[in-house]
Structure formats: structure tokens, C-alpha cells
Amino acid sequence: MGMLEYKKEEEAPVVKALIVDLTPKVATCLLPGLPAYLLFMCVRHTDFDNDDEKVKSFLTSTINEIKKAVKTHYADVERVTFWLANTCRFLHTLKQYSGEKQFQTKNTPRQNEHCLRNFDLSEYRQVFSDLAVWIYQTLIKNMEATIQPSIVPAVLEHEAIAGLTGSKPSGLRSRRSSRAEDTPEYSLDSLMKSMNLFLRVLTQQDVDPELIKQIFRQVYYFLGASALNNLLLRKAMCKWSKGMQIRYNLSHMEQWLRDNKLQESGAGASLDPIIQASQLLQARKTDSDVDSVCDMCSKLTVPQIVKILNLYTPVDEFEERVPISFIRKIQQKLKERESTDTSLLMDLEFAYSVTFPFNPSSIALETIEVPEQLNIAKLVVRC
Asked: Which long-range contacts (CB under 8 A, 24 or more apart) does 338-341 make?
């Protein structure tokens, strides 16, 4: 019947085995989302018995243990991803078997027979949705902390186009000098490796494709915002040759999205401010270019545009500084904008709202076996 029966006194060991003791490494050999399915099969039996207290206790224990597992391993991308995937799968399963017609459109007749009969767990769905948001935020913070040291070396300092700049910008000390010899240097390569690692873990743990898109949109926003904020504070970076290098480095990040079929995620658009800043460094800056420059910088605020123009450093003695008259005309033209954003630095704490689009499973509960690796065979009975 696709249910798991357990005794009330076995609740804690069952939940512990399925949540605390289960590692992503073991889980990769099992059915994706297996902990979520097994937890729900336990819920189904409490519904079958119409035991209100038992289901409340079980769901509360489940929530608390998932929180504990994530808090204990908050710095482990794989573990946090594992519980993001399983919390979302549990949430989808609560909907799929709720008996509500809007969630039954893709169910088989057999799956509809397995819908809950006695309990309305819609309030718990909101709790699990909130839990998934918290896990998602934990994962994003983890990913941001991982890539943060690589952003400036990868986007602003990496010089892939030979001959554009003869030397490093003044004020930049060698990164090797301050680190142990065996520590790999942060670079564009290390940033790309981090992105590949994130995608591999998200895919291995069977995170919903729509959620993967949202994750990379948020990570790319942080990447672009960090790069732009650093550019705005470093005069030595504000010159024509650097604009070209930065644009070339960002093209690698855009190509990575295309290579991994994430170009529709909105992640590329979140790089627009730093891309436009790099284009502003390369643009002609004469009075006849005022309109085109303003149009090109649609994602930059007025203070950001003016700051970059003021910081702009001529390449050599043959290039003039940006004329004050040009900057004033830019400011006058930008007064026509509807946007009232006057911030100079981008908000690194900004977060897009996350959603978990319903994603039903075709897996029939009665076909799910309880693997020996989970060590709950003696605690539950399939029925």
C-alpha cells in the first residue's frame, strides 16, 4: 500500500536514521529523494490509522532534525544541498498526495488511491516551505563565501588579453607574497571550478531544475555586485584597457551559463551592471556621445556612472581625461530617468525571492524498497 508502519517509541530512531545519520555519499547510491519518500510513507500510515497526535509528533521531529542537520553541517555545500533537495521533495509529495485536484493532474489512478484520507496537512506545507527557504538561504551564503575570494582576481585582475597592459595596476601587491606556497592562487580558473562544483552537487542531489536556475541567478548577482563595488573603489582599474579585460573575463561567465543550459535563468542579466561598467570604460566620451552613453548604462545608477567617469584614467599622454563638461551633460541627461536609485555601491545582501514550483513525481510509493544501508529495517514495516 506504499506505507511504513512504526511504533510511537521508534519515532526518534526512525527520524534520526533518515535525517541525521544519512550522508549524501550513501544517498547518491539510492533513489533520489528517498528520505523524503520514506518520511512521507510514515506519514501515510499515521493518516491510515487516523492518529492525529502521532502525525503531529512525527512532522515536528522531522522539521527539528532537518534544521539540526543543516545547522551542524552549514558549511558543507553537499550536505546542505542534500537537505534542500529532500525538503523540496517532501513538500511536493505533501501536495501531490493531499487529495487536492490542482496537484493531481499528473497522478496515476494508483497514486490517487494513496492520497491522504483523514488529515489536512496544508499548514505543515507552509512550514516545510519556510524550512526550504531557510535551507536555500544557508546554501546561497555558503556559495557566496566560497567564491568571494576569487571574484576580484577573476573579474577585475585577470589579464587574458596579452599586451593590453604592461604592468599590474599600482597599489596591487602580488597575491603570492601573502600566502603559503602550497595555497592555490584565486583566479578565473578557481571561480569556474567553484561554479562547476556547485552545479555537479546540485545535479547529483537531484535539486529541481527551476530551483537550480534561481540559485545561479542569486550567485551571479553577488558575483557581479562584488565586482562592481570593487571597481568603484579602485581608480587604477578605471581605464580603457581594463574595461576590455573585464568584459572579456565576464564573457567566460556568460559562456558557462550557455554551456550548462542556464542562459534562461536570469543569471546573465544579473551581471548587467558590471558589464555596462566595463563598456562605459571602453566607450568614447565626447559631447556627441552623451545620449548613447546614457542608453548603454541603463542598469547603472547615476552616482555609479559619474563615479566611473571621474575615476577614469587615460591610457597614455595622448588620451585626455574625461571633460568636466561631458560629465555635467551626462548628469543633466540622466535627470530624465524615472529611476530614483541614488546608491553608489550595490547591495550585497539583496536577495531575489525564491519559489518552489510544484514538481510531482512519477514514482509509485508501493514500489519503494527500504535499503539496508539506512538501518531502519527493524524499526519499520512496509505495508
From this structure: 339/301, 341/301
